[in-house]
């Protein structure tokens, strides 16, 4: 019988189960409950604002604070999907207001949190989705965050702020973090002190929003609390939203980028000096995502080999000359290592999939995810020479490809009225060509592949009454998407 197996082997077996199956397995017998409980509680979410989930979350907090079986020791990741408040619809009636019941329930939440947190001795990551003080007093929030900061193994925090109100003191207790994510208004009120108290930080992910009349902070301000000549050489850096990066700040930043392997920089203006400095200092990235393309970036990308993931999504029309240079001289440098490639221009042109680009892409044998844009001229080619059919004919060499997105290029003036019709027609044309495509004896990789368009997601299936013929069938449809 399975129960006669060693606990280590049982643990390996049940670790393959989905969460719902794990929960059901707990109730089969006491021994399996003992084996499965640590897996069920490894990742836990609290939903204090949700009418249906509030009682469950409160019961969980109560059990964590009871110390009876110490279930908190199994939790490695905690996500709080709400502010510090009970659901809005509760306790707002006349008698509730007279009795001040909402305030008492909010106080109970604070009490249970403070009792539960010390039991989370193995907690490694803490995530707040919609962090907001809610009905808590400043002292209560400060006490909760102080308790979290004392947990010995906590190294990752991810905070998505709910409003533009940030109290730096709430986060000033945290130290020795390795992975920091902040998303919201005025994140620079918090981040510099966190970085100063985290000497071994390796991942930093920031999205900043500022008031419309505010001056955007500089990227260098992230490190403004560090003593002179002190560096924080992060390995993974993501900067998005309302930041500015003056050319004069690049020299200051380079010491912090010495160990950088992954960079996502989605801000309005990235100076050419950044890419020139990275190339000069031999800082060669394996993962890159940008929304602004310039000559220095293209030159940097072509100066080495080894990129694994690359996302080029220019928000403004870019030159055809740069696109041709990318397809002809840059991408060939990375065909052996490229696993994920997004080339997503806003408009038609040479950044869209073309014959030369397709020839190079077929050499990327290790591709797992590919997202390309096609324009009207190439889609409208009659017969099997159109770019969609030719792309689908190239699927066999991509043994590892799991996801292929073929989206339509848009005209900048495609907003409202009949101006949408051309893009709508391109979307339909792309989907029609995919649906009409047929093949025999597809590879196992082709049968696992999901092909997405602006219109739907499709997979290869055997055609009825035709044993050896396969075609794409839409399994999910979302209308015309962005068209």
Shape: globular
Are there runs of 5+ residues with pLDDT below 50, and where?
415-422
Structural class: alpha/beta
**Roughly what percent helix?**
25-40%
Content of β-strand: 15-25%
Radius of gyration: 27 Å
Mean pLDDT: 85
Distance between the termini: 57 Å
Count the DSSP helices. Answer: 18
Number of distinct beta strands: 17
Largest sheet: 17 strands, mixed
Folded structure, characterized:
This protein is α/β, with parallel strands linked by helices. It is built from 18 helices and 17 strands. It has helices spanning 7-14, 19-25, 30-40, 54-66, 94-99, 101-116, 138-149, 168-171, 191-196, 250-253, 272-280, 295-301, 320-330, 355-361, 376-379, 387-392, 421-436, 444-448; strands spanning 43-46, 77-80, 125-131, 156-161, 179-185, 203-209, 236-241, 262-266, 287-290, 309-312, 340-343, 369-374, 403-408, 438-440, 450-452, 456-462, 469-477. The radius of gyration is 27 Å and the shape is globular.
Describe the structure concisely for a colleague.
By secondary structure, this protein is an alpha/beta fold. It has helices at 7-14, 19-25, 30-40, 54-66, 94-99, 101-116, 138-149, 168-171, 191-196, 250-253, 272-280, 295-301, 320-330, 355-361, 376-379, 387-392, 421-436, 444-448; strands spanning 43-46, 77-80, 125-131, 156-161, 179-185, 203-209, 236-241, 262-266, 287-290, 309-312, 340-343, 369-374, 403-408, 438-440, 450-452, 456-462, 469-477. Helices cover 31% and strands 19% of the residues.
């Amino acid at each position: 019988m399975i129960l006669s197996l060693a606990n280590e082997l049982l643990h390996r077996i049940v670790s393959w189960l989905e969460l719902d199956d794990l929960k059901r397995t707990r109730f089969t017998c006491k021994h399996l409950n003992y084996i499965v409980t640590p897996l069920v509680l490894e990742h836990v979410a609290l939903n204090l604002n949700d009418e249906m989930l509030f009682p469950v979350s409160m019961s969980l907090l109560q059990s964590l604070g009871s110390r009876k079986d110490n279930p908190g020791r199994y939790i490695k990741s905690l996500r709080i999907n709400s502010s510090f408040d009970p659901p809005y619809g509760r306790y707002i009636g006349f008698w509730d207001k007279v009795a001040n019941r909402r305030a008492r329930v909010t106080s109970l939440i604070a009490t249970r949190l403070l009792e539960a947190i010390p039991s989370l001795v193995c907690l490694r990551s803490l995530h707040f989705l919609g962090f907001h003080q809610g009905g808590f007093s400043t002292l209560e929030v400060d006490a909760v965050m102080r308790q979290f900061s004392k947990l010995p193994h906590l190294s990752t925090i991810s905070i998505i702020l709910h409003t533009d109100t940030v109290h730096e003191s709430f986060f000033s207790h945290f130290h020795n973090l390795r992975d920091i994510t902040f998303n919201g208004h005025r994140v620079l009120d918090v981040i510099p002190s966190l970085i100063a108290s985290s000497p071994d930080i390796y991942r930093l992910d920031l999205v900043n929003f500022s008031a419309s009349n505010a001056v955007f902070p500089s990227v260098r301000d992230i490190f403004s609390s560090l003593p002179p000549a002190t560096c924080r050489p992060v390995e993974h850096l993501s900067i998005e939203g309302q930041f500015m990066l003056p050319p004069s700040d690049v020299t200051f930043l380079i010491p912090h980028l010495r160990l950088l392997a992954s960079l996502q920089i989605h801000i309005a203006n990235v100076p050419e000096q950044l890419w020139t400095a990275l190339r000069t200092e031999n800082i060669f990235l394996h993962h890159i995502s940008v929304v602004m393309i310039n000559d220095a970036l293209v030159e940097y990308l072509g100066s080495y080999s080894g990129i694994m993931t690359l996302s080029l999504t220019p928000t403004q029309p870019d030159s055809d000359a740069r696109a041709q240079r990318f397809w002809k001289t840059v991408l060939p440098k990375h065909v052996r290592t490229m696993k994920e490639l997004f080339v997503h221009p806003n408009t038609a042109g040479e950044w869209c999939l073309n014959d030369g680009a397709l020839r190079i892409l077929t050499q990327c044998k290790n591709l797992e995810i590919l997202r390309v844009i096609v324009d009207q001229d190439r889609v409208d080619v009659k017969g099997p020479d159109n770019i969609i059919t030719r792309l689908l004919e190239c699927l066999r060499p991509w043994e590892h490809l799991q996801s292929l997105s073929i989206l339509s290029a848009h005209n900048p003036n495609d907003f409202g009225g009949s101006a949408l019709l051309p893009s709508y027609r391109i979307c339909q044309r792309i989907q029609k060509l995919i649906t009409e495509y047929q093949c025999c004896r597809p590879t196992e990789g082709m049968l696992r592949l999901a092909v997405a368009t602006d219109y739907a997601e499709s997979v290869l299936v055997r055609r009825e009454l035709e044993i050896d013929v396969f075609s794409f069938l839409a399994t999910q449809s979302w209308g015309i998407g962005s068209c």
